[in-house]
Specification:
Elements (H helix, E strand, L loop, with lengths): L4 E5 L7 H12 L4 E6 L11 H13 L5 H18 L5 H13 L4 H20 L2 E2 L16 H12 L5 E4 L2 E3 L5 E3 L6 H10 L4 E6 L20 E3 H9 L7 H10 L3 E5 L8 E4 L13 E14 L9 H11 L6 E4 L3 E7 H6 L1 H12 L3 E14 L9 H11 L6 E4 L5 E7 L3 H12 L2
Helix pairs in contact: 1-3, 2-3, 2-5, 3-4, 6-7, 7-9, 8-9, 10-12, 13-14
């Protein structure tokens, strides 16, 4: 084997016997794919996802309603998959064991983990591969974060001797040896941990296609798909709402120098995206990887004479917003004024309460609010080395008759973020696309 690939199958790939067969064909098409991390079956028409049913099962049992009806639905889903695969797997025994565990009082994490546990055993039976339980393979710290060092050691010891193995995603082992689940939607972390443990050359995610365009396709219909980005660019995209890969996963894989490929089992090569620590020399692009943005931000202007000499002002203000769980997207400072950008819906819910606390805590001379602002991010590795970048951008926006309300060059030089009025959002995207992409 020339390389080692760790593959993760999302819930879509485990939804039916047909999707499992498609995923299995992909896995078997390359002998380098040795370790596969499997999710629970996702929702299909007429049924919710298995994990949601398991959570419902747990709550129904503890509310006194009983869980047998829900367990029957879960059993029927798995039996349909097993029947379609034509394998000999005792679903009833697994469901019976789960029912007994629920009656003994196991916690929600244990119940929620059984979707992946059963699906991984089914997939292992279908492929004829070894099943390796995530319990005892993946470990968590007391604060709920993955224990990388312990996981890397345990997973390497278990998996390296095996030619092939199937591992459930979504859960691992708590410090007190109980089942502990990841946050919903964070199963990529399990795959990344395994990839780092076995020092894989590539980590794959097979589920849905990651479709990142060079500009907002609702504004630029002809915008092309971006097929290759760096982890640094992916983190910048996450910040502006293009969520390709979890931040922790991107950082973990970047540190290990392991690229990640995201593709669909329906079209393995079409629209696939590669995320890597660095861009290969043969990847050609202009200044930016993509231009993306969001509307509906609010700017809160706080004026106070001598603000620049009050060294605790920033700490108090941001602490106040943190208490209300409102993230400050950006802030600009002057000698006597600070402007803070917030997402409008979150701010509007607590506006009166926040203003009262600001007046009491900071005694400002005035507080004013400006609504209807859009933030547009131009993201790319070359943003910090392109000469005349701001000149190019502002000239394009000026020619289009667009007033720039704010501008900021990211500290890591991976992005430039500008603020324009909501009414200018589409025109600004088009102007920047023409100047930087075309």
């Amino acid at each position: 084997m020339n390389s080692l690939i760790v593959s993760r199958l999302g819930g879509d790939a485990a939804a039916t016997s047909e999707t499992v067969k498609k995923a299995a064909d992909i896995i078997l098409s390359d002998p380098s794919r040795r370790y596969v991390i499997v999710s629970a079956p996702a929702a299909i028409p007429g049924s919710v996802g298995i994990t949601d049913l398991l959570y419902l099962c747990h709550s129904s049992y503890h509310s006194g309603e009983g869980c047998m009806r829900i367990l029957d639905r879960i059993s029927a889903r798995y039996k349909e998959i097993v029947s379609g695969l034509g394998i000999n797997f005792n679903v009833s025994a697994e469901i019976s064991a789960l029912k007994g565990a629920i009656e003994l009082g196991v916690d929600l994490d244990y119940v929620g983990s059984r979707g992946e546990y059963i699906m991984a055993k089914i997939f292992a039976e279908y492929l004829g591969w070894d099943f390796v339980d995530a319990h005892g393979t993946i470990f968590f710290n007391a604060d709920g974060t993955p224990d990388r060092a312990k996981t890397f050691k345990a997973a390497a010891e278990k998996l390296t001797p095996l030619k092939h193995a199937i591992i459930p995603s979504f859960y691992g082992t708590s410090p007190d040896n109980r089942i502990k689940t990841f946050k919903r939607g964070d199963c990529d972390s399990a795959g990344a941990l395994i990839a780092c443990s076995v020092k894989a050359e590539l980590f794959e995610k097979w589920s849905e296609t990651a479709r990142v365009f060079s500009a907002d396709p609702s504004v630029i219909p002809e915008a092309e798909l971006v097929s290759h980005i760096t982890y640094r660019e992916a983190l910048e995209m996450n910040y502006v709402g293009i969520n390709i890969v979890n931040d922790n996963v991107a950082i973990m894989l970047d540190e290990a120098r392991i690229p990640m490929r995201i593709a669909s089992i329906d079209s393995p090569d079409e629209g696939a995206m590669l995320i890597s620590p660095d861009l290969p020399e043969d990847v050609q692009r202009n200044v930016s990887a993509c231009i993306a943005g969001h509307k509906n931000f609010t700017v809160v202007h706080i004026s106070k004479y001598g603000l620049n000499k009050d060294y605790s002002f920033d700490e108090k203000l941001f602490g106040l917003f943190a208490k209300h769980r409102i993230a400050c997207q950006h802030y600009l400072t002057g000698i006597h004024q600070m402007a803070v950008l917030l997402k409008t819906p979150l701010f509007d819910l607590k506006r009166g309460e926040i203003f009262s606390e600001i007046r009491e805590l900071l005694s400002p001379d005035s507080i004013t609010v400006e609504k209807g602002l859009s933030l547009i991010a131009v993201i790319g590795e070359a943003m910090g080395t392109t000469r005349g970048l701001f000149s190019i951008m502002f000239e394009a926006l000026a020619i289009a008759g667009i007033n720039v309300v704010m501008a900021e060059h990211g500290a890591d030089k991976q992005n430039v973020i500008i603020g324009v009025l909501d009414s200018d959002y589409e025109a600004a995207i088009k102007a920047l696309y023409k100047a930087l992409i075309l």
